[in-house]
Amino acid sequence: MDSSQLLKGVLDLAVLAVLAERDSYGYDVVRRLREVGLEDVGDASVYGTLRRLFKAGALTSYVVASDEGPHRKYYGLNDVGRSLLQTSAKTWTSFAATMNDLLKEVDPG
Amino acid sequence: MNPPMTPQKYAAAVREALADLPARDRDVLLEDLDEHLAEVAAEPGMSLEERLGSPEAYAAELRAAYGGRPSGGGSSLGGRLRERMSGAVRRVHTRLLVLPPYRQAAVFAPELRPAWWVLRGYAIALAVLAPISAPGLVPGDLPAWVFTLAVIWGSVWLGRRGRTRGSRWSRALLLGADLLAAVLVVTAMADVPSTSSRGVAFDYGPRPDVYAPGMRVERVSSLGGDVSNIFPYAEDGTPLHNVRLYDQDGNPIMLEPGFDQEFVIPCDGEPPMRNAYPLPLRPVEHRADPAGPEATCVPATPAPTDATASATPSASPSPSPSATPSRR
């Protein structure tokens, strides 16, 4: 199974989790997701997800000017984002537990 | 190989690939794309295209991640208000998602949308037809059916097209139509009991001379058309007279005599009670002098039926002598 297919379903959760750690700008989110092992994550997917979560009212955003390089738009969680992260994490945990349970006997080889 | 694209060129190509989005949505979505791409391009080693793929693929991925409904918004007051509203709704939604029944309902609800499209078309078609066709919950004739089906088709088409397309006004219009249809459906359902043919309708007395709210009974017998009188019999077959009928709330049950029947009003003594059965009715006579007194009383003897003779006092407000025979 292509892990990018799996990622689509949980990208929101992954982005929220990264932002819960600390506020980030778009490319930083991509980098941090790749650092933790989600190498397949698409730049545009992350960017689109950030814009969507922001539009949905789950994120705050502010622009930080920088001397060298472009201005950066930082995103952070607000209350909606935090509660969304909480419920999504709960859903994911129980889903993952179910899957682990199901695959207990399977030898991945 | 072509020279690597600059962030500006790449961003322009992405914008072009998303040209079918409404300008407003596109601007909101791509607001800081240039900065973002500049950041990516600043990474050493690979060109933008090597790193991100073609601008078209990038645009497609962006579109997918942003989701099917890039809502408006922006800096206008309405946009901010809508953003706050949708934020609040989403917050409640998120909280409620903890409850399993709500979660199931939230998953199930989208499947009901096509049904709503049909229902909404039907309701609006009937509302449009209402002034020109017979009242009812189904179209009256073939043209009405054709019209109704056409409206349903249009409603489904609009529903399938999705909300994202079209201008803000057309979306507002659609929302208005949805609300209107919802109101129509709810009122139609609330109305059903009183429009059914076996109606038992509340009435505030057939004439002002009866003050207590009374029941008016229409068409309770399914075979013979209107009921204009009731003839009670005892168990052994003896006809009963002056039987008072009341409903469960103590309101007198009254019948409307037919067009060709009128009450027999005795000249001396009290007028007949409207809920004492059988009613003292007689066929309406065609008066020679239409300008003359409308009601003619009859001497107490001989009464056409002895029901009129007894004038026992009753708990209900006693009808005052009425000059007008009750008929409609």
UniProtKB/TrEMBL annotation, chain A:
Q: Where are the transmembrane segments?
A: none
Q: Which Gene3D superfamilies match?
A: Winged helix-like DNA-binding domain superfamily/Winged helix DNA-binding domain (1.10.10.10)
Which domain of life does this protein belong to? Bacteria
Q: Where is the Transcription regulator PadR N-terminal domain?
A: 15-86
The record's annotation in PANTHER family points to: PADR-FAMILY TRANSCRIPTIONAL REGULATOR, TRANSCRIPTIONAL REGULATOR RV3488
Report what the protein is called: PadR family transcriptional regulator
Native organism is Microbispora catharanthi
Taxonomic lineage is:
Bacteria, Bacillati, Actinomycetota, Actinomycetes, Streptosporangiales
